[in-house]
Amino acid sequence: MHGSRLRQWLRRAFTPPGRRSLAETASPRMTGEYRGTGAYMTTMRPQDILLPVAAGLCCKPGGFHIDPVRPVERAVITHGHSDHARAGHGAVLATQETLDMMRLRYGENFAGSTQVIRYGEEIRLGDVSVKFHPAGHVLGSAQIAVTCKDTCIVASGDYKDAHDPTCTPFELVPCDVFITEATFGLPVFRHGNASDEVKKLLASVALFPERAHLVGAYSLGKAQRVIALLRQAGYDEPIYLHGAMETITHYYQSRGIELGELRPVTGVKKAALAGTITLAPPSATSDLWTRRFPDPVTAFASGWMRVRARARQRGVELPLVISDHADWDGLTATIAATGAGEIWVTHGQEDALVHWCRGRGLRAQPLDLVGYGDEEESETPLADEAEA
Amino acid sequence: MNRFAELLDRLAYEPGRTNKLRLITRYFHEVGDPDRGYALAALTGALSFKHAKPALIRDLIAARTDPVLFGLSYDYVGDLSETVALMWPKAAMAAHNNPPPLTLTEVVTTLRTLGKTELPRQLERWLDELDETGRWALLKLVTGALRIGISARLAKTAAAALGDKDPHEIELIWPGLSPPYLDLFAWLEGRAEKPVNRDPAPFRPVMLAHAIEETDFAALDPADYIAEWKWDGIRVQAVAGRDERGHIAVRLYSRTGEDITGSFPDLVPSLRLPGAIDGELLILREGRVQSFNVLQQRLNRKVVSPKLIKDFPIHLRAYDLLGDDENDLRELPFVERRERLETFIGKLDDPRIDLSPTVPFASWEALTAARADPASAGAGEDADAIEGVMLKRRDAPYLPGRPKGQWWKWKRDPHIIDAVLMYAQRGHGKRSSYYSDYTFGVWTEGETGDELVPVGKAYFGFTDDELLQIDRFVRRNTTEKFGPVRHVVHEGDKGLVLEVAFEGLQRSPRHKSGVAMRFPRISRLRWDKPPREADRLETLEKMLKADESLPTIKVAASAKGH
């Protein structure tokens, strides 16, 4: 108790006034800020519907949390990445794919009970209704629209508005309050066309036929998208997989996603890997494991590869700008298109996006949520010597 | 422009030399004239136009982006050109019916003639037209800051590979060529004769020596060889020739053929006679040769100030003559060239240029003694600037490259200490999965008894097999990790002792130990030695005193010091 009080005090003390979190502005004495806007007088204030707390985004009238980072009684989950979908909740509501992925990662008993919801389906929870819409991020990813009386808030989770052959495309959901991620919330992040990046990879394979190409990619979503893009580009050789990629990738195939011939890389002779492409978790591409490959070219598929210093830091030789998050243009276009008058910005470069929103006359604030980031950062590091 | 940008982009990330070569050669192969010629010019630093100032780029972006967003972005990216390239807003698609894509040729030729006032508008138009990578390359090009780790030599080698030629051949004709090098590419592709070098003072590919091993002597007869001191300076080729109007043109070339005349204007007036001298650049003060540390002050300077010239007077010590007026001497045996050289230097009669003396010897034993103690074998007070001895066959012609058995270098034994491995860091490229960069330390008295103080870093010298052994040791004995750096156990009885060889020592206020090593490398792994028996800092300090010829090293420290 004492510890959490202290933390709260510290946070207040070190947060500049413009960045006060919603949790604080929601206190009964500080409602003046919203009184001026007539529409809210008769309806509920958004922060009475959804409020950031230590465990995540809490919906009090609905009695659940969205993507909680700590175990809660009832969790509604946007997608299967480990920073959003954690084990140990009482009840979990999510799409079939998200639930399946959680099962694959955490085992059968990852939650007390589960409930499947489809895109477009609406479910009543307490005083609110909850509806799922495709987020275009990874297979099964969803935006969650929470409606209470006349106010609709969309918690978009992670999303992208770019082409992806491995998941249902992003759907625009008009709303009053839009909660957006800001992973790539700086105008320097423009992802371009992912198929051009794949062409870059194929050109390199053609130029260095005696070398192996190792592509670092997050094992859920990114890897399968890269494979699908390679197939679309006409590459029909077998593609090799790091052991950590196999389960999720096979799951994608079982959901009808065409990925062509895939082979485990374990046990393949070094010389046989010349001229091939192998997908691996990013952490594996700079370790002992790479010694089984002939003079490997290290590629990395990520939106971060747009910035040279990031690529160089990781020792990447072939950066591929392929992201499963919306880029700056995607974020700003989506925000504008939702018609929302109020924007809550979370995980990533909040400052720039909040600034942009305010410049457009939108009410915007950063949302103090912790525990979300790159999926990779929450991945367990690979055992150092195990694969030598 | 896009294809060139793509090349630069890929080169900027590629660590391996052979792979860089492949990428550039492939580019020359795929891209036609004159674009590839201008690309070669860009990579060799042969393009000349007035560079755009960063302030201009900053103004351009300020006019079309929000200052707060630009500030946050610049903060994140850390590089002005890159930030601008990435956040440049997409043009409102004013371009009508798909104009042809911008070419490198158009950029280079336009920049050459463009007035200063027209530059901003022109840059804007180009930035509107290009994509992220294209804009990045354009900005690097116009600001004159390519910095992608490609030397002129590498670019020429890649061009040579296009026609299976020796890069030396290109070096030979290079001074007479100019962008976009149509004649060069025509020759490389077998469509035309080799271009003739009309340069009055052309570069000649240099002859290099092999390092001699103990076992080599048995097969060599001392009578076949002439010995000279090996000076610790910079190899240089000083060429003077008459141009069409009969004026003397002078050029100084590095051993790779790079024109370094601009760095040593004070030597130019001394080269009055047409000819090509092979020799060593040294700093001489009151007739005494200074250490390499002193010479270093003259290297890589943008501006050669009168003060620099006065404080670090340059000198050429000649050891070979490749051309005498119009005559090419390279086919002659070394003894004959040496005679011609002596006459030539005598005729020049210039205080800045002298002969490299020979070292008389009758047997290998006598030479061994001279090498061990140059001071008493004729080098006198210059002994400190001597790295060892050179052996040259009397009958050797001057051959480019490193021909077998003609020239030998026999360096003095390097300094050697036993140090303890303290930290290890991952390498780059091929070595990125290995801990191959090592920081090592020696013992010194600390507040709580003896402690290790880092004295240097080394990342070569070991065999592939030893690398595996060290890598394994590092992984099993890590005490802490900081990003790519591992702290490796280093206590009195736990740790790994490395035998480190190095060429020299220098005082350095930037190092905690106060000393910096020149050219350190791992010479042996001392698994047999407990760390507590490794060397102490005092040993290095003694070596340093012996190494210092003059206390001029302070200049080095203050020139760099921040």
How is this fold's topology laid out?
The complex is a heterodimer of chains A (388) and B (562).
Chain A: H1 2-14, H2 22-25, H3 32-35, H4 38-42, H5 46-49, E1 51-53, E2 56-59, E3 64-66, E4 74-76, E5 89-94, H6 96-106, E6 111-116, E7 122-125, E8 128-134, E9 142-148, E10 151-155, E11 177-182, H7 194-207, E12 213-216, H8 222-232, E13 239-241, H9 243-254, E14 262-264, E15 277-280, E16 297-301, H10 308-313, E17 318-320, H11 328-338, E18 342-348, H12 350-359, E19 363-366, H13 375-378
Parallel strand pairs in A: 3-4, 4-5, 5-6, 10-11, 11-18, 12-15, 12-16, 13-14, 13-15, 16-17, 18-19
Antiparallel strand pairs in A: 1-2, 2-3, 7-8, 8-9, 9-10
Helix pairs in contact in A: 7-8
Chain B: H1 2-13, H2 17-30, H3 35-44, H4 54-62, H5 67-77, H6 80-87, H7 104-113, H8 119-129, H9 132-143, H10 152-162, H11 167-173, H12 182-188, E1 210-211, E2 225-231, E3 234-242, E4 248-253, E5 275-285, E6 288-289, H13 292-295, H14 306-311, E7 314-324, E8 327-328, H15 334-348, E9 353-355, H16 364-372, E10 386-393, E11 407-411, E12 415-426, E13 435-446, E14 449-458, H17 464-476, E15 478-482, E16 485-488, E17 497-502, E18 504-507, E19 515-518, E20 521-526, H18 537-547, H19 553-560
Structure description:
The complex is a heterodimer of chains A (388) and B (562). In chain A, the strands form 3 sheets. Chain A has a 7-stranded mixed beta sheet with strand order 7-8-9-10-11-18-19, with helices on one face. Chain A contains 13 helices and 19 strands. In chain A, α7 (194-207) packs across α8. Chain A is α/β, with parallel strands linked by helices. Chain A has helices at residues 2-14, 22-25, 32-35, 38-42, 46-49, 96-106, 194-207, 222-232, 243-254, 308-313, 328-338, 350-359, 375-378; strands at residues 51-53, 56-59, 64-66, 74-76, 89-94, 111-116, 122-125, 128-134, 142-148, 151-155, 177-182, 213-216, 239-241, 262-264, 277-280, 297-301, 318-320, 342-348, 363-366. Chain A has 2 domains: 2-188 and 325-378, Metallo-beta-lactamase, Chain A, CATH 3.60.15.10; 194-320, Rossmann fold. In chain A, 50% of the residues are buried. The longest helix of chain A is centred in the middle third of the chain and has 14 residues, at 194-207. In chain B, α1 packs antiparallel against α2, α1 (2-13) crosses α9 and α6 packs antiparallel against α9. Chain B is an alpha+beta fold and 562 residues long. Chain B has helices at residues 2-13, 17-30, 35-44, 54-62, 67-77, 80-87, 104-113, 119-129, 132-143, 152-162, 167-173, 182-188, 292-295, 306-311, 334-348, 364-372, 464-476, 537-547, 553-560, and strands at residues 210-211, 225-231, 234-242, 248-253, 275-285, 288-289, 314-324, 327-328, 353-355, 386-393, 407-411, 415-426, 435-446, 449-458, 478-482, 485-488, 497-502, 504-507, 515-518, 521-526. Chain B contains 19 helices and 20 strands. In chain B, the strands form 4 sheets. In chain B, strands 3, 4, 5, 6, 7, 8 and 9 form a 7-stranded mixed beta sheet that branches. In chain B, strands 12, 13, 14, 15, 16, 17 and 20 form a 7-stranded antiparallel beta sheet that branches. Chain B folds into 3 domains: 2-143, DNA ligase i, domain 1, CATH 1.10.3260.10; 210-411, D-amino Acid Aminotransferase, Chain A, domain 1; 415-559, OB fold (Dihydrolipoamide Acetyltransferase, E2P). Chain A binds chain B through residues 186-190, 192, 200, 204, 207-208, 286-291, 295, 298, 306-309, 311-312, 315-319, 349, 351-352, 355-356, 359, 384-385, and chain B through 6, 10, 12-15, 19, 22-23, 26, 65-66, 68-69, 72-73, 76-79, 82-83, 86-87, 131-132, 426, 428-430, 432-433, 475.
